[in-house]
TrEMBL record:
Domain DDH intervals: 17-154
Keyword ATP-binding among UniProt keywords: no
Sorted UniProt keywords: Plasmid
Name of the molecule in the record: Bifunctional oligoribonuclease/PAP phosphatase NrnA
GO MF annotation terms: nucleic acid binding
Domain of life: Bacteria
Length: 316
């Protein structure tokens, strides 16, 4: 079994380290990727460290990526953070390096890489990165840049400490990052910020959300609605947690139509385990928060029926 000590030993062996994360990044994907990159730059100033992948979109204020040539991977160590399976890795060049390490907190259904450090009970991959640094016996050192994005990663993946994955240790990690003068209040405000268009989308959700007898809520946000409200598909993510605030909603799913007319599917739950259902539709994730894909309205109808059957069987 992989240990953090083995990961640190590999890091110390390589002069070039390239860090990837998943597509459609959230704060934890960016926090764990860029947080690790900043820790390594701070700890090993003579090494070349890259953070790569697709554009960070509306999270560019948090951090962004670097563009590198495939030749940079020759003789390099590649680390992928917060990515459950290899098809979701952002950047097809991730397998061009000499060795590959996976660091993650999703269920380890796809143990890709030469080394795996996967802790599904951790609140976030950012929390795992913090633990690796704290247990490195001084080999790795935080700085303000690392602390800022790692704190954001924890806040993002715990739903501002509301999710059941939040532990006393999670709070200790967040508090440790706050000691680096990261202006956590401004970070929290920025993460809570939405545009006027996204606010109107919230109104659309409350107006159009359906809730059935099994306490399943569901909503389709098609391209026509996105165009009318002037929001991009990635901006719809701001409403994914909203149905959970409603009394009488046990689990919910939001379908967001993409440019190719397929749908990105967002599952959330207050109890029923939904990641196995997500896997049946080209997805996966956490027991209470997962993503998937739907090809068309027919598959949307199937997913709603399957989620309703799952909710009907649930007992606390």
């Amino acid at each position: 079994m992989t240990t953090p000590e083995q990961i640190i030993a590999k890091i110390e062996t390589y002069d070039t380290i390239i860090i990837h994360r998943h597509v459609n990044p959230d704060p934890d994907a960016i926090g764990s990727q860029v947080g690790l990159a900043e820790v390594l730059r701070n700890s090993y100033p003579d090494k070349t460290i890259y953070q790569v992948g697709s554009d960070t979109g509306n999270l560019a204020w948090l951090a962004n990526v670097q563009e590198i040539e495939p030749a940079a991977y020759q003789g390099a160590l590649v680390i992928v953070t917060d990515t459950a399976n290899s098809p979701r890795i952002s950047g097809e060049t991730f397998n061009l390096g000499a060795e590959l390490i996976k660091i993650d907190h999703h269920p380890n259904d796809d143990p890709y890489g030469d080394l795996n450090w996967v802790l599904p009970d951790a609140s976030s991959t950012s929390e795992i990165i913090i633990d690796i640094v704290n247990n490195s016996e001084g080999h790795l050192q935080f700085n303000q840049a690392a602390a800022r994005v790692l704190y954001a990663g924890i806040v993002g993946d715990t739903g501002r400490f509301m999710f059941n994955s939040t532990s006393p240790h999670t709070m200790e990690c967040a508090a440790q990052m706050m000691t680096f003068d990261i202006h956590h209040d401004k970070l929290n405000q920025k993460m809570n910020e939405i545009t006027l268009e996204q606010a109107k989308l919230q109104g659309y959700l409350f107006d159009q959300l359906q809730v059935n007898d099994q306490q399943v809520a569901y909503l389709v946000v098609d391209r026509a609605t996105q165009d009318r409200l002037h929001v991009e598909p990635q901006q719809v993510h701001s409403i994914v947690g909203t149905p959970g605030r409603l009394k009488g909603v046990l689990t919910w799913v939001i379908f967001v139509q993409q440019a190719d007319d397929t749908y990105r599917v967002h599952f959330r739950s207050k109890g029923p385990i939904i990641n196995e259902l997500a896997k049946q539709h080209d997805g996966g994730g956490h027991p209470l928060a997962s993503g998937a894909k739907a090809a068309d309205q027919a598959e949307i109808d199937i997913i709603i029926a399957e989620l309703s059957a799952l909710a009907a069987q649930y007992t606390e």
